[in-house]
Amino acid sequence: MVSSGASSTSAASSPLSATPSAPPARTAPAGPARTVTGHGLSRRRALALPPAIAALVALGGCGGFGDSTQAKAYDTDAVHREVPLQDAPAAPEAATACASLSESLLRSHLDADPAANTLACPVGMALAVALLYAGSHAPADGVDELLGVTADGSTDATADTVRDLTWSALQNALLVYEPTETQLENFDPKAIPDFPLLHIANRVLLIDDPQVEQSYLDAARQWYAATTEHATRGNAKATLDAWAERHTGGLIESSGIEITDDTRLVLQNALLIAAQWVGPFDPYNTQDNDFTLIDGSTVTAQLMHEDLSLPYAQADQWQAVRLPYLDENARLGMDVILPNSGTAPTDLPEGTWAEASAALDAVEQDPDLRREVQLALPTLDLKPGSVDLLAFLDAQGIALDSLEHIGKGLRVDQAVQQVRLMVTEEGTVAGALTEIGVADSAGIPEQDEPISFIVDRPYVLRIVDQLTGLVLIEGVVMDPTAE
């Protein structure tokens, strides 16, 4: 176990990396759960560690942090289990539920402010909730349905095993794009790498001296590769901010969690994606164009223009294209769903956005069904701000309670997500941070003329992984010129 800091995060911060200085890892033995505190390690355990780490442990939980952005590694011997996708009992259902959750969140915010841009990271939301209930036999009512992992008679697995197996496998399936530590350290959003980068990290930060079940920390590591660290209350915000900035490539600069006197631990999930288009747009073809807002007024947006052969689908109320990324696995792409003129994205019936992606999936299977598309697509740099996930879930009738598997007398008092999305001639960069604070108490048209696909009015975009069906980033763009 090693000390983890913002300026020099250890390999333990990467879901695929084992901690280099840790003793040989072993799976936590079966048996009754044991409760640990923020100090966590016995003196005997501390002396068994490498000298530098043992010295940190001997300092206890109230000092010895040095840089205020640093946190100390915490005791768990559990080994991350790399579950293959084929062993996930409910992967398709989970991906569908994830997309539905995202659409509900975006629609709820557009109901409150119909003219606002809104972004979501569906997989980040799902993984954060799954992490909250890692190893739990009795999650809050509605959580398993929310995650699409309700156990049925077709499997012998228990509900908690279905949940953890499924979401662990989905997370692992995305780690084929995981960057090296050097790539993450030197990430520059203005220099998109030649091949897709997709970084996912999970973390449990314990604050001061909470009573936490060791079995929960072990499950968080085993299923979700979560690092567990410990910080003093005075250092907690700084270390949350530093972790967020590092693991989102600097796109999200600070945590959305407010540290209060009651905060006992914080769960963080970060996602960073950067991918080039298969064929970059020629920047000389980027032009000022009118973009019609929902109220009928216009703004001047920068639209990239290119004639491309793309998967294309349409229905009565919309048309859609899929822009592939330069990806040797041929998995990642951005779906752009353009409602008919005069139709807002939220005027489309619920489920339409996912139906459009499914129609594009069908076209993707047959290259002969691609269409020549005269595409005009806005450049973007959007960061709408924090989204209150707790209020949203409360409105859905889901209270994130039943936390006895973590510790006694705990409640979720904050759940927030921040997303930033950049779309340029070269490709796409997006970062997302999802956090939970725990406190006390189609149809295919005829092949004829090229399709004119001018994105000059509000539209939906979805960055999708075609292998798992997961939506990584989803958004409704009402005004591409908004700051």
Fraction of residues in β-strands:
25-35%
Helix content: 10-25%
Outline the low-pLDDT stretches. Answer: 1-34, 37-66
CATH superfamily of the domain at 283-381 and 444-477: Alpha-1-antitrypsin, domain 1
Cα Rg: 23 Å
Biggest β-sheet strands, sense, barrel: 8 strands, mixed
Verbal overview:
With 483 residues, the protein is α+β, with helices and mostly antiparallel strands. It has a domain at 283-381 and 444-477: Alpha-1-antitrypsin, domain 1 (Roll), CATH 2.30.39.10. It contains eleven helices and 20 strands. It has helices at 43-48, 51-58, 91-112, 122-132, 143-146, 159-174, 181-185, 214-224, 233-247, 352-364, 389-395, and strands at 35-36, 72-73, 118-120, 197-207, 212-213, 227-231, 263-276, 287-292, 298-310, 312-314, 318-324, 332-339, 371-378, 380-382, 387-388, 411-423, 427-439, 451-454, 459-465, 471-477. Strands 2, 4, 6, 7, 14, 15, 16 and 17 form an eight-stranded mixed sheet that branches. Helix 3 (91-112) crosses helix 4 (122-132). The longest helix is centred in the first third of the chain and has 22 residues, at 91-112.
